[in-house]
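Suppose a colleague, Dr. K., hands you the sequence of a protein chain of 194 amino acids and asks what its three-dimensional shape might be. Before reaching for any lab equipment, you can write down a predicted structure in token form. Begin with the sequence itself:
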Amino acid sequence: MKLFRYLSVLMFCLCPFSVLGKGVYMTSEDFLAESFSSTQPLIESLWLTNEIRDAAKKIFNHAYPGLRIRYWRDSEESAQRTAWIINEIGKTRPITIGITIANYKIERVRILEFRESRGGEVRMPFFTRQFVGLTLQASNSQLSETIDGVTGATLSVKAVKKSARFALLLHQLVTRNATASGQNVTASKRVALR
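The predicted structure, expressed as tokens, is then:
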């Protein structure tokens, strides 16, 4: 029995802890409920024009897939809060990242699903808290502050940073279009989240 315990502890210690990082940490519904706790958000779609595709390629260093991207926004016209769920490749697998932006500043970043074998530390609050309050620099589309990396998670950190930059860029686009025209002309449909 003592030998069995010893072998069990040894096997646990030899198990790579990075594998323990894989998993679903928050559903999309929970993320949206956290982002829009006081209001019912509207689901909208932003068609990816050539200009948006070019900007995405500069940020991600690859073409962003799809013809449109879904986002959620406050149902109140005066509010400028949007939520984006973006999938970006870490090393080899996509990371699902939820980003909420209010008044051109990041309000929260959540890792909804992590599929990589390494770099799962990016889901931890000590990392995601760094994004709160950041904006996009107009001059070069970079984040307004430096994000500290995580040892052994370089590609996952880059994926989250790129997604945050892209979400800020898209937020600026949809909120400025809505403000300029009095409604969101880039949206294809408006339906209440059920």
